[in-house]
Amino acid sequence: IRNLEKSHYGTVPTIERVTYRIVPEAVTRGLMLRGGDIQSAMILPPHISSGFVGNNDYQVLEQPIPRVRMVAFNTERAPFDDKRVRQAFNYAIDRDAIVNSVLEGVGSPAGGLFPDGFYWANENIKPYTYNPQKAKELLTDAGWMDSNGDGFRERDGTRLKVVFTTYPERAELPPHAEVIQQYLKAIGFDVELKVLNVDASNKLRNDGNFDIFLMGRGLLFIPDPDSIMMTDYHSSGTSGDGWGAYRWQNDRVDALIEEAQVTSDPAKRKALYDEVQAIVVDEAPVAYLNYYVNIDVIRSNIHGYKMHPTEQCFHLENVYIT
């Protein structure tokens, strides 16, 4: 609610009241916008936002943000306690095809933690390419073979069966999981999908009751890489509950992150973080899939609306309605 009796920093807004409604389901947000219940729907997936394209009653806005879709592996138990199996997963996934099909071209394949163009991104990382033959070779080298011809690999009498968990609050994640399930089946995995609400799925993750966990991970809620490095890749973070690598420890990574904390020179810090990113891609405790482009759809009579690149703020100071 605007209060003209208070002093304002910067522009005094023209709109007098803003009502925020928390609606977790993207489909419902889209329906509410069409029905006139709301004037703006945030973070709609492409398969919903595309229905508003070309309609003069709406504006479809896009904003690249520092967020990555990725999976974390349970590195405490087979099969993903083996680096070769984690790398096989990476080679089995066609990231370009996922962007073009699931995301309808809105986004870009992820080779590392940060998108290209970010200062902290290691742009020299060689990303995993789609190579199912290489994936099969790695699984065979790890002892997983289809000995009975049923299409699924086994080792020591145990089938290569994994539980793949995700949540629907980000509507594009379950379709990602379904596509990835087929990629993994093609190289000999038996994959059980579990789609639960974000709290239930994250509890399974934190309790270790999963093999693969698919998520959307914000990268720069704090505009410095130390936060994400400590929580997601340093052993002090990966040993507890969280959203990054799961129960994974690498002494070299720990040392690099700790050195970066006490290094003030930006170029030297970047070199340290570059090495961390290269190790993480090679060791593959996580697999990066693609980078986010947020999509907001607003009514065409709303002007001056500007999306924020961090998702943390709303640029409403210049908004007016006609």
CATH homologous superfamily of the domain at 69-291? Dipeptide-binding Protein, Domain 3
**Residue-averaged pLDDT, rounded?**
95
How many H/I helical runs?
A: 11
Poorly predicted runs: none
Helix/strand/pairing category: alpha+beta
Measured as a percent range, the helix fraction is 25-40%
Shape call: globular
Content of β-strand: 15-25%
**What composes the largest sheet?**
7 strands, mixed
Gyration radius, to the nearest Å?
Answer: 22 Å
CATH class term of the domain at 69-291: Alpha Beta
Instruction: Please provide the count of β strands.
Output: 11
In the CATH hierarchy, the architecture of the domain at 69-291 is Roll
Distance between the termini: 19 Å
CATH topology of the domain at 69-291: Dipeptide-binding Protein, domain 3
Order of helices and strands: HEHEHHEHEEEHEHEHHHHEEE
